[in-house]
Task: structure prediction
Amino acid sequence: MIADKVKTILAQIPSRIEVVAATKKRTTKEVLEAVDAGIGLLGENYVQEAEKKITAINRKVSWHLIGHLQKNKVKKAVRIFDMIETLDSCELARLIDIECCKIDKIMPVLIEVNASGEYQKSGIGAADLEVLVADVRGLTNIKLMGLMTMGPLSAGSQQLRECFGGTKELFDKIGSLYGGKLDWRYLSMGMSADYRIAIEQGANIIRLGTVIFGQMRA
Ligand SMILES: *Cc1c(COP(=O)(O)O)cnc(C)c1O
Result:
């Protein structure tokens, strides 16, 4: 079942778009089934959950942190993740940088943008984005590579289009401001309910849970 869904989705989606399977609350067995069907990128919301799954799965896959990162989890997070998609403050950036320095690692990072304003609480507001980029750019052990956003839940397609389109504009603006000075290339937006609209608006990473693993069990 999971394997069929993965194969169908991977066949539908253009190969320039990376598919992150969102593993929160899924079992190791479920995640392994997705990996064996061709998923090479896994996204986890919780640091401790990721740690358990990484040990249990033990395959050549990459792990992205896609949930909010608490300060007291930074040390662990930089050791186990290959990318952090949810940077949303200067303070957090500094902590990531310090912990990465200690283990001599350069961490690929996306900034999470709150593109739908009042509808969500995570992510940095558009008005503060440029300041954060300027700040993070000076940190030696963070490699800033793009933006991530969450579409507003239960929004209509027009509202989703505006939210994702607005994030693409911010993405392009930073890209043109910093030109070749950043390896600026990833725009992570779109989940099971809205990934088609996100792709249409320029996403090149999508994060899928339900369409791969089925509805979450209560
Ligand atoms: C859960 C989650 C997803 C996947 O959500 P689905 O609607 O199940 O596809 C994607 N991104 C983030 C940040 C998530 O927390």
About this structure: The beta strands are 18-22, 41-44, 62-65, 83-87, 107-113, 142-149, 186-188, 205-208. The first strand starts at residue 18 and ends at 22.
